[in-house]
Amino acid sequence: PFKIEMLPYKRKLPVIPHPAEITKFIAQIEDPLKKAMIYFMFLGGLRWKEVSLLRGESIDWGRGIINLVDTKGQHPGICIMPAEAKDILSPVREKACYVFKNEKTGKPYGSLKTLFKSASKRAGINRLHPHLLRHAFATYLLESTGDLRLTQTMLRHKDITTTQFYTQIATTRMQVGIEKMTNYIGGLDGWKNKK
Questions:
Q1: How far apart are CA 11 and CA 141, in angstroms?
Q2: Predicted local distance difference test score (pLDDT) of residue 120
Q3: For residues 137 and 44, is the Cβ–Cβ distance under 8 A?
Q4: How confident is the model at residue 48, as a pLDDT?
Q5: Cα 80 vs. chain centroid, distance in angstroms?
Q6: Backbone angles phi, psi at 52, to 5 degrees
Q7: DSSP line for 103-131
């Protein structure tokens, strides 16, 4: 029988925005609840769906921990609430309802495409999207800690090989490694003089 051979999928590396660009982007968002949603994605590593379906009863306000129920693959997990989001949500916290509900519909937001497009344009940066904020979270967490296992836990990846993808993007660690190697060998001029 005729068989179609599938080409192997090559995952592209995302271009991670600089923290200054993300800060400019956040500064363009006026609605405090939408700003809190962005903080959850960038400083908490949550997926868009996890943020939009977040319910008040899932939040442990005393400890600043969120019990995630509606997750990818239905694998429950926990998340540390970003302090910036907690400051915004504390005055409006409610139990037994969606934290981020659309005022017009009373239901969770279906999308923030318009917000991302317009805020990126006003900030003068390349267009961001929700999952790129999660990629930025993972990259900067790995760069700042060097802890792959912690990054896996925070992203709630079942398999560490999924998390290892971020080692290809963590350029700061590469730069530090090259600097240490260059210092170790004494630079190219120092190495020539040793021979």
A1: 21
A2: 96
A3: yes
A4: 93
A5: 13
A6: -65, -30
A7: TTTSSB-S--HHHHHHHHHHHTSPPP-HH
- Please give the Cα distance from 19 to 42 (Å, whole number): 10
**Residue pLDDT, tens place only, 91-120:** 887 776 889 988 888 899 989 999 999 999
pTM above 0.85, yes or no: no
Average pLDDT, the chain: 87
* Maximum separation of any 2 CA atoms in the chain, in Å: 74
Separation between Cα atoms, residue 46 and residue 38, nearest integer Å: 9
Helix residue spans in 44-194 (DSSP H): 48-52, 83-89, 113-123, 130-145, 148-155, 160-163, 171-185, 187-194
pLDDT tens for residues 148-165? 999 999 998 889 988 888
CA distance 40 to 86: 10
Q: Taking Cα atoms as reference points, which of 97, 128, 104 lies closest to residue 29?
A: 128
